[in-house]
Amino acid sequence: MIGWIFAFIGAFALDAVWARYNMATADKRTLAAGVYSIAIYIMNSGLVIFYVVDHWLLVPAVAGAFFGTVASIEMRKRGW
For 29-39, what is each residue's pLDDT tens digit? Predict the structure, then answer.
């Protein structure tokens, strides 16, 4: 069960960072986009290594990815 929680939270955070990276790129904020790209590589590597061991962890990862994007966009709409 802890693996499912970790996969959900990891994918949530990774997708939120991806969304923020895309926003920074669209806004031409070069340094912010560069920092987000570093975070993407580090987080993605850890998550992939984690769910390669157990393919069922893709289920919570997919859910986390969806909610991470939704949360990031909603935060942006509210000015965060």
Answer: 999 999 999 99
